[in-house]
Specification:
about 300 residues, 8 helices, alpha/beta, 5-stranded parallel beta sheet, 7-stranded mixed beta sheet
Length: about 300
């Protein structure tokens, strides 16, 4: 027997899903949030956050706990509940390990995962010198030696940004030419930073904190160890779009969910917010999109389609 029906189901309890839950609860919608891990999303693994309004500095876990406490004053968060399948026949039927539940509307706030290099030391040193967001963590490496790994526009922007805030930057790319925008390539070259081309990262080294990176030149085979206080990996992201794909929601060419100004997708009753929609991946942006998505879901549920049919 299915649980519900809920007015609204939100998949994901990061900043987008959390904000959506607060707005949905305040609007009086019977809402549940399903999160495959711990509430908070990628905020949980951020060592320090300094760009959330009202908090000059706060740790990721502490901010996540504040999110959770606020959200749970309005709606229920079900953690460690991986959504396995979503079907749609007027009501959305959502399959989880705990059983099925149904909802009248759905917000997808599943985020995106940073593409990893898959080399030794990457996981153990993540948040301890290895980062995937220069604008989030670069401030902590002012005046220090950092590596940027990648050759696309994001990697070039990271390198420029880190140079401008006072880091000593080495840019490592596995090809002989960058793939990013020409203007960014020219800017990087004008800064006279170290460009290490045709080179792969073989290992991130360090015990409690990153202190070096092992590199291998693809042309000569030479293995080189360089000191690094920080390493910023920018080799792409993977949107967690499995639910959207199963529902036939329109995606862009990179796999991000396409939404309009109301965060509505191509499927009626389905909204999306946060990193899974692409764009600027920042906590404050995701929270704003979550608020819009919940408000739009409320408007959708107030339409005659629902108020006349029950």
């Amino acid at each position: 027997m299915s649980e519900g029906p809920y007015d609204l189901a939100i998949v994901g309890a990061g900043p987008a899903g959390s904000a959506a839950g607060i707005y949905a609860g305040r609007a009086g919608l019977n809402t549940i949030i399903l999160e495959r891990q711990m509430a908070g999303g990628q905020v949980v693994i951020s060592p320090s956050i300094e760009n959330w309004p009202g908090e000059k500095e706060i740790s990721g876990p502490d901010l996540s706990m504040k999110f959770r406490g606020h959200v749970e004053s309005y709606v229920k968060i079900r953690e460690f509940s991986e959504v396995e399948l979503v079907g749609h026949d007027r009501l959305f039927t959502i399959s989880t390990p705990e059983g099925e539940l149904v909802a009248k509307a759905l917000i997808i706030a599943t985020g995106a995962e940073h593409r990893k290099l898959g080399v030794p030391g990457e996981d153990t040193l993540s948040g301890r010198g290895v980062s995937y967001c220069a604008t989030c963590d670069g401030f902590f490496f002012k005046g220090k030696d950092v590596l940027v790994v990648g050759g696309g526009s994001t990697a070039l922007l990271y390198a420029i940004y880190l140079h401008n805030i006072g880091c000593r930057v080495k840019l490592v790319h596995r090809r002989s030419e960058f793939r990013g925008e020409k203007a960014l390539q020219e800017k990087v070259r004008s800064l006279n930073m170290d460009l290490i081309m045709d080179t792969l990262v073989e290992e991130f080294m360090g015990e409690e904190q990153l202190d070096g990176v092992k590199l291998r030149n693809l042309t000569t085979g030479e293995v080189l160890e360089v000191h690094a206080d920080g390493a910023f990996v920018a080799v792409g992201e993977i949107p967690r779009n499995e639910i959207a794909r199963s529902l036939g929601v329109k995606l862009d060419r990179e796999g991000y969910i396409e939404v309009d100004r109301k965060m509505a997708t191509s499927v009626p009753g389905v909204f999306a917010a946060g990193d899974v929609t692409g764009g600027l991946k920042q906590i404050v942006v995701a929270a704003g999109e979550g608020a819009i998505a919940a408000t739009s879901a409320f408007d959708y549920l107030m339409e005659p389609y629902w108020t006349e049919s029950g």
